[in-house]
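Box 3.1 A note on notation
Throughout this textbook, protein chains are presented in two layers. The first layer is the amino acid sequence; the second is a token string describing backbone geometry. Keep the layers aligned when reading.
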Amino acid sequence: MSAPILQVESLAKRFGGIVATDNLSLAIEEGELHAIIGPNGAGKTTLIAQLAGQIAPDSGSIRFMGDDIGVLPMDRRARLGLARSFQITSLFLDLSVLDNVMLAVQAHAGHSFRFWRNARREPVLQERARGALERVGLLPRADLPASALSHGEHRLLELAMALAGNPRMLLLDEPMAGLAAEESARMVTMLRALKNEFTILLVEHDMEAVFALADRITVLVYGRVIASGAPQEIRANAQVRDAYLGEAEVVGAAHG
């Protein structure tokens, strides 16, 4: 078996007296969609932030494609192929949909924004940005200001921006957050297609989506892994049910 594309060993992070990540180890295999679930405050977003380089861990190691990336800044990790989306969208609402993705292409390439006016005329930037928009179904909206999009379309635009850098792995933080049922279904369809091309680490509260998409699931409680395995193993795990899946709405989704 080949080495995991992402290997986390003994990761720890404290914020004052709060333990956000507690000696956490995790291995993500290339080509899988691996979901991270757990109750609010479990440390899921803090984990994603450490993997992406937004937050530095107190101890432990992070290896991506065999290389130690623990000391690399966010932009270096992104250029290595580790792309992150955020729980709360971070878009330039006054710019066009296309311009938002072109900025992402330029950022992934490590270019400065100082010559943005000229860069907008660059055909390579345009081509890559339009390709990313087409993949998420937003190409017809390319010339609209980002502010004109719905919340669900904002999530898709953010996904296009992550795809614009030709990543090896996607770190997706709550892509279904705030979506209506129809928008959630659209996002699930999109992620199902993308999982055939990319390794994906998915943090998500929507259990119906998680169990529909995940190859493996890891459960966090208070920053600690309490279980990791195939979806059917997680459903059958008594400790997981007691800690998390016992919530009524989650049980219903898990059996849906």
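The CA atoms of residues 101 and 161 lie 5 Å apart. The longest helix spans residues 181-194.
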